[in-house]
Structure formats: C-alpha cells, structure tokens
Amino acid sequence: MYFENHPLPTWNLKDAFIDYYIQNDEDFEKTNRAIKKDLEELSKKVTTLKSVRKSAEKYLSRWEKLVVQFREFSKKFKEPTSQLTGQQIKSLQMKDKLFPKNPGPSNNPSNIPSNIKKRKNSQVHSLEREFLFEKVDADQFRSDEKSWVIDGDDVGKKFQQYQIAVAEHVQSGELLVETHIQELLALSNILLIKPDQSSSLFNKYLHTTALIEKEIKAKFNVEKYRFDPIKKANLEGILADLRDKSISIKVASKKIGNILSDEDDDDMDPLLLGVRNLIESIPQSKFNYPVRESSLSCSYVHCVVNPMFNLPELKKHVIWLNTQIIKESNKQSDFIGSTIFGSQLKGPGIIGEVKGEDRKDDKHPCLLDMVRIEVLSGESINQNSYDGVIGILAIGLQTTFFITSLMAPGCYVMLEICSITLPKDFTEIRSYVANMDDLLPVLHYYPSCSNHSDDDFLQTNKRSMMDSSMFEIVANSGKSRKRLCNIVYSH
Question: Which residue ranges have biased composition labelled Low complexity (predicted)?
C-alpha cells in the first residue's frame, strides 16, 4: 500500500499510480479500485496520524478529478518508444544500462512495510524506468538550496554540488553498488563519512570531513573516553585465569559480575557484561569453519549489543526481526533498537544488519546492507523527529557503528563512530578487550538518539529518502566481487 508505506510529505500521485498500475497488470479500472479502497481504509484507520487521514479524505473528496489525472498517467505509461523524441530515446538507452531489464531476485528478509512488491514479470517497463530515472535528475538538487557553514566553510553548498555531479554522472554512465556507495547514498541526501575512505568524486567536493566529524561530536557532546584502568586490569586478570584453566567459565562470569558498579549509569558496565556474555557463548578453542549469519547474530553480535542497548527499566529493547522470506524483501533490517511508548513500539533508534563470515567477500549484498541501514535511519529520523539513529553493520566478525543525524537542509550525515573486531573464540578475547574503549562513544551517542529534535528545524530541513521503487532497481543491479570498493567494511 503506497500511501501507508510512505511518509506524508513524500506522497506523489504519479508514483502511487505507477506502483498500483504495475501491481494490477496495467488494468486501469482495477488500479483505480485498488487505490480508492486503500485510501478509504486509510481514512478510517484509527491508528493512522490525523494529518494522514485528512489527506486521504481530501483525495477521496476529489476522486473524479484524480481519475482524470490517472488516465493521463496511464496514457504516458503505455506510450510507445517510437513516439518519443530523439533525446528521450537516447535517455532510455542510457537507462537500460543503469537499470538492467532482468534484475535478479532479492532474498533479503523483511517484515518492515514498504511498497516493494515482487513482480510477476521480472522485466521492468522501460517507461517505468524513465519515471524512476527522473528522480535522480540533477535539476532537483540544483533547486534544493543547501547551506551549512562550519568555520567559514559552506559544507552544505559543497554537498549540493557533489549531489549535482552524481546526478550528472548517472545521466552518462553506470552507478554500481560496489564502486559508488557514497554516490548512491548522496542521491538519498545522505553524506557518508568514513575516515580516509572515499571516492575520487567525493574528495573533489568534500575533502575536509574532519570539520563535519567535529560538528557531529559537538552536537551530541561526545568526547574521548577511556575505560577505567583498574577495572580493565581486573578483567584481564580474570581472563588470564580462565585461559590458564585455574577457574571455570562459571566462576569467571561471577567475578566479572563483581567488577560491576553499584551505579545504574556506569558506561563501562554494559561492556563488561558483553565480555561476560561472550565467554559464556563462544568456543574456547580455535576452529576452522566460518561463523554463519545465524550463529554470528545469536552467539556474537547479540552478546555485545544487548547489554549496550537493551534497557528494560527505560523500556528500551533490542528486537531481532522476522527472518522469513516474504514479498517486501528489500527494506528490512536484521534487528532494531526501539522504545515502548504506552503499549506500542516507537520507531527504531537503532538499525542493525548482520552478514556471516561466509558472505563477507560478497561486496554487493554487504554494501547494500549499509544502504538499507542508512535509508531506514533517515526515515526513522523523519517520522519520529529523532536527533539521531545508531546504525550497526556486522560483516563477519567486523562490527562497525554509525551515527546518522540531520545536520542541515537536506543533509543527513552518516558518521562512522568506531569499528571493532569481535573475538571468534576465547583465544582472541584479550585483543577485543584491549580495543573495547572504542565502544564507549557509542554509549554516549545512544541516549540522545531517542530525543526529539527541534520540530521546526526537522520540518524545514528534512528530505525524503531513496524511493522504494528505485531502491528495488538498485538492489537488483549486477554484482561482482572484482569491482573496486572505496570503503573498508570488513577485514
């Protein structure tokens, strides 16, 4: 259902009609009935926002006029290519390169609503691709005036110039997930900052990322943090005793519990609990087989993430989502962190994705997970007025944490907070503990994420994320392990 699955500010009648039209086998009357039925249901749904219900009612009140518009949309959709101008034909030929006619099926799990539907016919109509292609027209970025001045440097203007350059690149060449991850995110108004990891096109316009990183940290009052040296020494002593088999895992767990603070807000306690969870879950000796996604999720990632973000007293919970393969398969994260408000879950403040060790060399799906994290983070900020959202990308044992925040008009910054390697077995846990300080900033970002930002600022400066239909096209583009990648997502 298009209208329920898109934020109100992003509703577009042409997009909605095309979506329904394709789902209903290009049957005009059937499409009209489906749209009207969904609008009627939406206008009566008590759980729907009042503004959304009113908009649905407004559409229904002028239904006859909408039908006339829909008829024009259907005529353009069916218009043969031979009737197009030479420039339009040239554009369609270029779009055939960008959007392959036979995209492969997606097998990502999903239960988050979206308008992505599995088509009966895998071929994408050429004029549908034209409608999708219009969404990356450079003019839309030229007209979206951005300004974000940091120390006299207008980062917002540079980001706008970068977006225009990306859109122009799309007009003349391919955009590949593996090679152009920052460019793909830029089309969705997302500025990905990974230290010393960026494309040449990105560097041409945005080479002073340190200023942006400094601004993000200032917004969330994040500084450098160090683990208490006494607690760390005690922990290392317990692990040494466990390694020498002078104590059992049960005794080691109890001793780690004794290190915990009596205060509820000690930032080091969640990390200590994470170590305790790991020694109770991971193998004690080395092994050769790869850690697959299910084991990585349950025995590794959950052990670390749960004590950091699952806080029942504050009604904050880490939730692992349904892994069943269903139709809405492109906009699903593996887990989220959310807060119970009343009896309902609020929008996620954490978006997490996991890929097993056996998949870490598959660049395309791994990077697509990053796109998914960021698009869903932006949507959550828009819909819930959050100051920020934490993103967690676990590729094999390498786990990277991001913070995403709306910093300026149409500029959602996705900043890498840290990247840490989880121990595959007990022999590697001391290395993990040595670098555990890196996780402390994540704990300082998180409390602010569920805070509501200035609503006027959000309403003025927010922009829509990548359209679901376009996301489907991108997700099913060709892939190759041999393609160059400008960022490091796994070691």
Answer: 100-115
Q: What is the pLDDT of residues 132-145, one digit of tens each?
A: 444 456 666 766 67
Contact 384, 412 (CB under 8 A): no
Q: How confident is the model at residue 85 (pLDDT cuts 50, 70, 90)?
A: very low
Residue 321's H or E segment, with its range, is none
Domain ranges of the chain: 1-78, 87-224+299-491
Tell me how far apart the alpha carbons of residues 34 and 54 are, in angstroms, rounded to a whole number. Answer: 19
Q: Which of 221, 274, 112, 212 is nearest to 441 (CA)?
A: 221
Cβ neighbour number for residue 367 with a 10 Å cutoff: 23
Q: Residue 341 — left, alpha, or beta (φ > 0 → left; ψ -120 to 50 → alpha)? A: beta
Burial class for 291, CB neighbours closer than 10 Å (0-12, 13-18, 19+): buried
Within 147-228, residue ranges assigned H as helices are: 155-172, 181-186, 200-205, 209-219
The phi, psi pair for 460, rounded to 5°, reads -75, -35
Cβ atoms of 479 and 178 closer than 8 Å? yes
Instruction: Return d(Cα 370, Cα 393) in angstroms, integer.
Output: 7
Crossing angle (nearest 10°) for helices 468-475 and 13-23: 60
Q: Exposure of 197 by Cβ count < 10 A (0-12 exposed, 13-18 middle, 19+ buried)? A: middle
Going by the DSSP 8-state scheme, the letter that residue 311 receives in this structure is B
Quickly count: other Cβ atoms within 10 Å of residue 392's Cβ: 27
H-helix or E-strand spanning residue 92: helix 86-98
> Six-digit token pair at 449?
């994420």
Region of 315 please: left (phi>0), alpha (psi -120 to 50) or beta. left
Q: Sign of dihedral through CA atoms 73, 78, 79, 81?
A: positive
Its pTM stands at 0.72
Distance of CA 276 to the CA centre of its chain: 29
- 218-222's contacts with Cβ under 8 Å and 24+ in sequence apart are 219/387, 219/405, 219/407, 220/387, 220/388, 220/403, 220/405, 220/444, 220/445, 220/448, 221/444, 221/448, 222/441, 222/444, 222/445
- Decide if 79 contacts 20 (C-beta within 8 A): no
Contact of 346 with 338, CB cutoff 8 Å: yes
pLDDT computed for residue 403 by the predictor: 96
